[in-house]
Amino acid sequence: MIGPFRQRRSWPSSFATAFIGWIGLTVIVALIAGYSAPLGHLFLIATLAAVVQVLVLRLAFFALKMDRGISTGVLWGGATAALIVASEMAIFPDVRAHPYVAMITGVYIGTAVGAFLSYFYADDRKIEREAQAAGAPIDYGRDAHWLDPFIYGGVAYEVALIPRTLDVAIVAAVVGMIVGVVAAGVSHFFLSRWENSAATIPAATVAGAMLGALTGLLFRSYASSLMLPLPIEGAIAGGLTFLATSIAGRTLAAAERGQ
Questions:
Q1: Is the CB of residue 230 less than 8 Å from the CB of residue 220?
Q2: N or C: more exposed end of the chain, with fewer CB within 10 A?
Q3: Model confidence at 90: pLDDT above 90
């Protein structure tokens, strides 16, 4: 990852975190509920929420003591999200029409964003302190590539689904990015137990195909524009996402071990 995105606690990274969370999960919840209208309005609502939340949490970060722990980030993330959703209910009829779903979804997203902002700050500062104490250059290592899995997932879903409409292309990118971060979590927290060995790659690919088959059902409103049955489309996309992510995880793990 290039520039300020290598530092997860940077302002650009904070906005990226919020955009992925608010837009990604808002679209996915809408798809689960059978939403089939144009996505532009949903994007506007989610983008506004993301921008407002990041501005509030980052500008008041130390005043809110979010640098002291993830639990504080969860608290303020949820609180600000609740206020944002309540405000959007007063502005947007679509949000007002589904108050409970909107509030539950928004608070869930907001707590996650708040948690990540606190975690990213603490973890980056830990890496920086350790480098300074050792008199070494700051190297964020694998953590500098935190956004890569979103790209792998988005590209994999576009390749697998071959979208014929703009809405399908957008949904494919959004769903792919969320699956990509799941794949990254599997690679980092589970496959790393086996040092991301070559044998973990096919296992991860199979797991990704199983998860992907379920995500294929999210495209049921667009089934007529896809070439294969939805579970098969999703399985291919999910398998490709986990394949790319596990290969990248193995490469980065080997680099950290100096191999």
A1: yes
A2: C
A3: yes
Q: SS3 string of 147-200?
A: CHHHHHHHHHHHHHHCCCCHHHHHHHHHHHHHHHHHHHHHHHHCHHHHCCCCCH
Q: How many Cα atoms within 13 Å fall on the side-chain side of residue 4?
A: 8
- Let me know: does 89 contact 106? Beta carbons within 8 Å: no
**Dist. CA 259–CA 211, nearest whole Å:** 32
91: left (phi over 0), alpha (psi -120 to 50) or beta: alpha
pTM, to two decimals: 0.87
Question: Cα 145 to chain center, whole Å?
Answer: 13
Q: What is the pLDDT of residues 168-197, one digit of tens each?
A: 999 999 999 999 989 988 887 788 788 788
